[in-house]
Write a structure and sequence with these properties.
Chain A: This is ABC transporter permease. The structure holds two protein chains of two kinds. Chain A is mainly alpha-helical. Chain A contains ten helices and two strands; from the N terminus they run ααββαααααααα. Chain B has one domain. The longest helix of chain B has about 30 residues, at about 230-260. Classes of the chains: A mainly alpha, B mainly alpha. At the A-B interface, helix 2, strand 1 and helix 8 of A face helix 2 and helix 8 of B.
Chain lengths: ~280, ~260
């Protein structure tokens, strides 16, 4: 009886959050298409940014065939995979993090905390930026092109692993961002750390071998960022092992638990603008 | 005198937020440091391709790019676009007997001064503690010309960002405009790579646009990579861009102010 009640409670809670998220999707879409000119400007700039990562690698490798054991096309594939990944991240998460930092800075987090849903959910999943979806589309098209150029095929297994790797990467980056932004509750003036996180996230754009040049201490700090992108790219290159998968899952699990703990502990120290 | 007092008031405010200033300074370091790591690996593996661009040369280039970016790249455009134009705060500037152009300059300058001080500390740290050779010009004429290049680079950066901010008079979404500008600056400003390492088409386009005159040319000038003739050419190009951009600023300001409504756009 008790386990049955627990199952009903869990399914009811799930339905509630799914309903809330579905409503959020509709509200965000309506806000996006309200102004057509700004819609097209955002669309154009999003496509430009998708191309930016690839253009960067093209410029960096314009005179050399390979770097760090990665061929030019492999680096381009990494760049296009990054485009797909960051498209998802900016669509679902990054805008919420920027808003969260601002709410903490201005002492307006109360409005999020008073809602009858989980505070972490309302703080980090409220805004959906559909425009960033163009980065996903452009990234996928470019990835397909580079795979064709390398004569590499992609089967159902690779697609499933690719999606799983992207999801793991999203979870890792989300956990890192949430941990850092939660800590701004102790020093709200540093809300501009979000801008720094946008730049630091670019660490995942480059091969892990690049960071072996730095000291062991710095490399250890950078390791979680290298799990964001490399697994998904290695899946497409048919160079992904079970050990690498376990490492990625392990890092994701540890960081997720850590992020949740830091968020909960930080909230205890939060004081709003009126207190 | 009154503008001096405005500067001091804003310096007080900027100094009060020195933690934020430090985070912004770290921002300017991040991309160049990542690119430096990439280039060091590429030069180690294919050094023969890059000629004079040795590991030492590329290290000094990117360190100087990071240092110069922190105080040459102005960030007033978001303030102009969002707070002043979108939120209507511009009205308080219009009612005062001060030039909007100069007042905003006095608001931005303290942040650049503080970040410039941080940049000097980093420069001294890498030069004398880490021991990385950061070549800088030492002949009086070169120092004079390079100083001129830096001053004009800062002026171009400021006027360009003011022009960018004023486009908010006509747009409902400024983030798209900002994203396009960041893309162009990264590609053509010498951030991704020294322009001499670009394919020739890209390098020629970069020479024509104003972005390279904000960070790239000041950095190669201070490293002593430009002859006196080339320094004079850069100065001439900077003066030309300054005149063009200031003309565009006046045009946008005179037209934009007629559209402005005091409660915002």
């Amino acid at each position: 009886m008790e386990s049955g009640n627990k199952k009903i409670f869990i399914s009811g809670t799930m339905k509630k959050y799914l309903f809330v998220y579905k409503t959020l999707l509709l509200l965000n879409w309506e806000a996006l298409v309200e102004y057509r000119t700004s819609f097209f400007t955002k669309l154009f700039s999003s496509m430009l940014y998708s191309a930016y990562h690839v253009i960067t690698i093209l410029l960096l490798t314009s005179t050399v065939p390979s770097v760090f054991g990665w061929s030019r096309y492999e680096l381009l594939l990494l760049a296009s995979t990054y485009s797909v990944f960051i498209g998802f991240y900016h669509m679902i998460i990054s805008q919420n993090m920027a808003r969260l930092a601002e709410e903490i800075y201005f002492g307006r987090l109360d409005f999020l905390l008073l809602k009858p849903i989980d505070s972490q959910f309302s703080a980090t999943f409220w805004i959906i930026d559909f425009i960033s979806g163009t980065r996903i589309v452009v990234g996928l098209l470019l990835s397909w092109y580079f795979l064709q150029a390398m004569h590499l095929g992609v089967g159902f297994t690779e697609v499933v692993l690719y999606i799983s790797a992207i999801a793991l990467g999203l979870c890792i980056l989300y956990s890192i961002w949430l941990s850092v932004i939660s800590l701004t509750i102790f020093n709200p003036r540093l809300s501009n750390v979000v801008d720094l996180l946008f730049h630091i996230s670019e660490i995942g754009r480059y091969p892990r071998e690049m960071y072996k040049q730095v000291s062991v201490f710095i490399f250890a700090i950078l390791i979680p960022f290298t799990f964001i992108m490399i697994p998904a790219t290695r899946v497409l290159l048919h160079d992904f092992s079970a050990r690498q998968a376990l490492e990625a899952v392990g890092v994701c699990a540890v960081l997720s638990i850590l992020a949740r703990s830091i968020w909960k502990i930080s909230l205890r120290s939060y004081t709003s603008a009126s207190s | 005198m009154r503008y001096g007092k405005i500067f001091l008031l804003h310096f007080q405010d900027a100094f009060h937020s020195r933690g934020r200033s430090f985070v912004y300074f770290l921002l300017s370091l991040t991309s160049p440091m990542l690119l430096l790591l990439f280039w060091q690996g590429a030069i180690r593996e294919h050094g023969e391709v890059y000629g004079v661009w040795t590991s030492s040369a590329i290290t000094s280039y990117y360190l100087l790019i990071a240092i110069a970016s922190s105080f040459l790249i102005v960030h007033i455009e978001e303030d102009v676009a969002f707070r002043d134009i979108k939120d209507g705060a511009l009205v308080k500037y219009l009612l005062r007997p001060f030039s909007y152009f100069i007042v905003k300059f006095m608001e931005e300058l303290p942040w650049r001064v503080i970040q410039g001080l941080l940049a000097i500390v980093v420069f001294l740290f890498f030069r004398f503690i880490v021991g990385i050779p950061l070549p800088i010009v030492h002949r009086p004429l070169e120092i004079l010309l390079v100083s001129g290049v830096f001053v004009l680079a800062f002026a171009i950066s400021y006027v360009f960002k003011m022009v960018l901010g004023l486009t908010a008079f006509w747009t409902t979404d400024f983030w798209g405009t900002l994203s396009i500008e960041e893309f162009l600056f990264s590609v053509f400003g010498g951030i991704i790579a020294p322009l001499v390492l670009y394919p020739s088409v890209f390098a020629r386009i970069a020479q024509v646009l104003p972005f390279a005159y904000i960070v790239y040319f000041p950095v190669v000038a201070v490293e002593g990579m430009l002859s006196i003739y080339e320094l004079l050419r850069v100065l001439g190009a900077q003066v030309a861009w300054l005149i063009i951009l200031y003309g565009v600023y006046l045009l946008l300001w005179n037209r934009g102010i007629k559209k402005f409504s005091s409660v915002g756009q």
